[in-house]
Design goal:
Distance between the termini of chain A: 61 Å
CATH topology of the largest domain in chain A: Nitrilase/N-carbamoyl-D-aminoacid amidohydrolase
Number of strands of chain A: 24
Strand content of chain A: 15-25%
Largest interface: A-B, 118 and 118 residues
CATH superfamily of the largest domain in chain A: Carbon-nitrogen hydrolase
Shape of chain A: elongated
Oligomer: homodimer
CATH architecture of the largest domain in chain A: 4-Layer Sandwich
Helix content of chain A: 25-40%
CATH class of the largest domain in chain A: Alpha Beta
Low-confidence stretches of chain A: none
Mean pLDDT of chain A: 96
């Protein structure tokens, strides 16, 4: 039999557009004489659509598109993922919804779940993720709940779907395969009912994270090998978001053979469709796609998200404050990749605290990339503000409006973003960017309405050490990012105390703090301040965070200094930094713990 | 028997502080010779603590505080709510947690759930809310899952707790009482096993919303009346948040008699404790607390949240941009209520577009309240920016940096917030406020890094018509808010086209748009653009949104104009306005659908 597998670009919230895409692929599938076309999870509504699931008319629209897709199943069968709705309310008082798979044949949906006199013409997902950015139980019921409602067990209703030719399809949806911690195991239930000439199909809408490919290969090749049944893993591409976090869906669909080996895989970050032939094994005439790894893969994910999101929002140009430092340089490269260098406007905004080193680095970066470039000194405007305020005074309070010291430092950052970049972006017809990284965002080493501002935060899910790695990855093709941007200490250059030519800069010690912060943020059972202090006192900290013991001792000659340092950063992380994060732009998310809606925080001032 | 009921001020994330509070109350309870002290749901960890539940050491700390509270149960019994943990993992791969009730007696926790050879020394919550700001299934398992694990039913393990004296307590936790849409009904299960001399106790940690008191009285008085059993509803006070939304917990604990009548109730928005005597009925020697309603209640909630949050964050002073308009005036009153007028710095920042009318209104407001007041003209600084940019130009692009029209409008707003207010706040040692209302936020009629900025958004969950109502409520005590701020049209005064003296102002038509926007946002089964167009075409729109048909016809002589208007605002609501909301400060939440983490949105540009 021939299966036309579609790694589809799913547009969230736009069933109308997704239908057009499906329609186009069905024409192609028929031309290729496929018996079955397979589309990803939630390919009609989209997946990360937040509370849009509560809009009754939207769900109705999706259901009517389900019907239209079903009508296309004429001379070809269609397996697709979409929303299902029942005529009863869920416990939230709204109509009961499922994240479901549908099988259409000869213009009709086929029964996929049956028990006694009950029947459903769709298959609900069994496992609903409810962690990180996933909130499925907020919106959907599942197959286990359906079994319970029918007074039976999951094992009695989760069955492979038998095709006319006799082949059985073991259909699962995304999380159903990621069952390591789950109490139920859909692949095992199905596998016991299937044979070596059958086929597992997992339809997914699964966002990219660094390191996921490896984990995914491990998980799904295990299912195939365990049951000696080949497995088609079909993921979508595109970009979806939940407001605070933007995700790329990498596609990278593939087929695992019955030995758990990867037979072939689709490309990454682009739509693709191919015809697979299933007989004693699964065959596919597709070329071998070169896969990126590590920082090259991260770069591709970031550029993909920038390009697709700005296109969706109608933004063709961006303005970037180019300080001569590493973050804005890496940002400039990513946006140039996405929009073309001619649409990336670099602006260097010096005061007397900015060194020739960084000013030259900013200019060199622009020249290397071919971006429009401008130097816009900001001192006159700040002076105008300082003088203007010096003339003002309050009635009923005698505080003098003297702008100096820390007040003067922060006003520089806010003038750059709110006054200059926003206005320049407005005039050139575009948006400006936020170039903050995860380390700065972690401790709030940034100014609200200053460098925290922008339309997108491209590097917000990368630790500073990863930004350096990405810079080195970029420069593999030749020096695009000026070497001096990489070599100088990271610095905000907001005062004499941050003079890069004297080797002065940020108070964050890289990579030690990155590793400590990751230990606090990114472990599945998360660590707190007391855990790090305990680890220090019991001598396991350096090995726990994978940091050199000797370098640690150079930084902190004794433990009490290390504790003080931890307490200082912890307090910022939980306090002022969180207040800033709440008001930050969407973060392009690539880790397994991104600030925003993945990692959810309350302001408690702990 | 005597029950000491504690409407406790729960500090989220601070089991150490909550323990001190409990300790103090136990001393008082013993002095009053109470048999039992009752504390609210999650009174040790706090409730809205986001992903802090994942921090293993934090949960361990809570469990050790549970033990310390248990140890206090010496000569008195203690019923309290806290987290429980099992030595197995949940489906998220982390230790299984419950939102639980504990009963401590003679220094030991008592068994509250038993079946065959299973026993738990805590009672898990049965119903876990998973809508609006509630995410309990993300963190907790529940009593139904426990019953299933034990191979039995909820009915077999949910039992009243029998005291030594024979009285049975039917213990439930918060949502267990709000069971209208639920598939299980804890009060009914318990009620069937109880008699008229027994007592229901619902321990809650339930946030305030406008209209909730009425709904809560209906729901809980029904349970009491249905089973002819009195009911103690014990809620906490304090303020908790999830980052984007701040909530007040109103307390307002009360006892319903077996006829469903409210026997007495505790005060609102303040901690309180009282001894109840339970014999044939429930008695309490507390005075009758006057309850606020409507906008007076909203004012109290807002002031409570401002005061408690700013105190927690160490902010004693705020700076408010006083435009002479209604929003900043109402904000100034609320912050003055919370911090004292001497700590509320009002700054009027005129350009040539600001009328004497509004400038005088701002000054009069400051005089009426007794706030420090300053006029800080911003034109010189804007001119400095305009002239500075006019000198600049890009290499590789010939766009001229001419700041006029819409560019000039928005730079005014950003200068006010980012340059002036932020700097003034920094100098006086405080924060500045965001005064936006829900109508503006809905359609993004505000400038990012301008008037969307600030430490808190106090009016962000009130429609413009509600801001006017609140202003009138405030002025019941005499003219605090200048009448002209109420009488002039709402206007941003950013251009000649917004001249208030000529009756010009915002493009939003109040109250029609408020009602349309509410129809789109606040219905439980939410409406979309197509629903409103359909309602218009079928002639039900005005009745659906409760708006005058004749006034509607004055605004829109024909339907096509109304449709165009809907399409315009819908597009802004889903597009640019959402982009702004993502970067807005925390909103003080008082409705049943607040922007932020209550109503979750993806940027899809639908």
């Amino acid at each position: 039999m021939k299966i036309f597998a579609v790694q589809m670009d799913v547009v969230p919230g736009r069933p109308d557009l997704n239908f057009k895409t499906i329609q186009k692929y069905i024409v192609e599938a028929k031309a290729q004489k496929a018996d079955l076309a397979v589309f990803p999870e939630m390919c009609i509504p989209g997946y990360l659509i937040s509370d849009l699931w509560e809009e009754t008319t939207f769900v109705s629209e999706c259901l009517s598109i389900n019907d239209k897709v079903t009508a296309l199943a004429d001379g070809i069968d269609i397996l697709f993922g979409s929303v299902a709705r029942e005529n009863v309310n869920g416990e939230n008082g709204r109509p009961l919804l499922y994240n479901a798979a549908y099988y259409a044949s000869q213009g009709n949906l086929q029964p996929l779940v049956q028990f006694e006199d009950h029947v459903k013409y769709f298959l609900p997902k069994t496992l609903l993720p409810c962690y990180r950015e996933f909130d499925e139980p907020r919106y959907f019921s599942d197959l286990r709940a359906l079994a319970m409602k029918w007074g039976t067990t999951l094992e009695n209703i989760l069955k492979p779907y038998r095709l006319r030719g006799g082949i059985q399809l073991g259909i699962t949806i995304c999380e159903d395969g990621w069952d390591a911690n789950a109490y139920a195991h859909p692949f095992d239930i199905l596998g016991l009912q299937m044979g070596p000439r059958d086929l597992f199909i997992n339809i997914s809408c699964s966002p990219y994270t660094l390191g996921k490919t490896k984990a995914r290969n491990r998980v799904f090749s295990h299912h195939a090998k365990q049951h000696r049944i080949p497995l088609l893993y079909l993921n979508s591409v595109g970009t979806q978001n939940n407001g605070k976090n933007i995700y790329a869906f990498e596609g990278d669909s593939c087929v695992y053979g019955s030995e758990g080996d990867t037979l072939f895989s689709f490309p990454t970050f682009e739509p693709y469709a191919a015809t697979l032939t299933v007989d004693d094994s699964v065959h596919c005439p597709i070329p071998s796609f070169e896969k990126l790894t590590g920082m090259a893969e991260v770069r591709a994910a970031l550029v993909y998200m920038i390009r697709e999101n700005l296109k969706r929002w109608g933004i063709r140009r961006v303005v970037i404050g180019a300080s001569g430092g590493i973050d804005s340089a890496v940002s400039a490269v990513l946006y140039s990749d996405a929009l073309g260098a001619e649409n990336v406007f670099l602006v260097n905004m010096p005061t007397r605290f900015n060194s020739d080193t960084t000013k030259n680095a900013a200019r060199d970066l622009a020249d290397n990339l071919g971006c429009p470039y401008m130097v816009a000194p900001i001192t006159d405007v700040i002076e105008s503000l300082r003088l203007s305020l010096a003339k003002d005074s309050f009635v009923r309070n005698d505080t003098k409006m003297i702008v100096e010291g820390i007040h003067y430092e922060n006003v520089q950052a806010r003038m750059r973003s709110g006054a200059f970049l926003a206005t320049i972006a407005s005039v050139v017809g575009g948006a400006f960017t936020c170039n903050g990284n995860k380390s700065e965002i972690f401790v709030g080493y940034c100014t609200l309405y200053g460098d925290t501002s922008g339309v997108l935060c491209a590097l917000g899910d990368l630790w500073k050490v990863q930004v350096y790695e990405l810079a080195r990855e970029i420069n593999k093709q030749g020096e695009i990012i000026p070497q001096k941007s990489i070599d100088i200490p990271a610095s905000a250059e907001l005062s004499e105390a941050q003079n890069v030519d004297e080797g002065k800069g940020d108070p964050i010690i890289y990579p030690y703090h990155d590793k400590l912060f990751s230990y606090w943020l990114e472990r599945w059972n998360r660590n707190g301040l007391s855990d790090s202090i305990h680890a220090l006192k019991t001598g396991t900290l350096c090995s726990d965070i994978d940091f050199s013991e000797s370098r640690f001792r150079e930084i902190f000659p004794d433990d009490s200094l290390a504790v003080l340092d931890m307490e200082l950063w912890w307090k910022r992380y939980q306090g002022i930094a969180l207040a800033k994060r709440i008001q930050m732009p969407p973060i392009l998310s690539v880790s397994r713990r991104a600030f925003g809606f993945d990692y959810r925080e309350s302001q408690m001032g702990r």
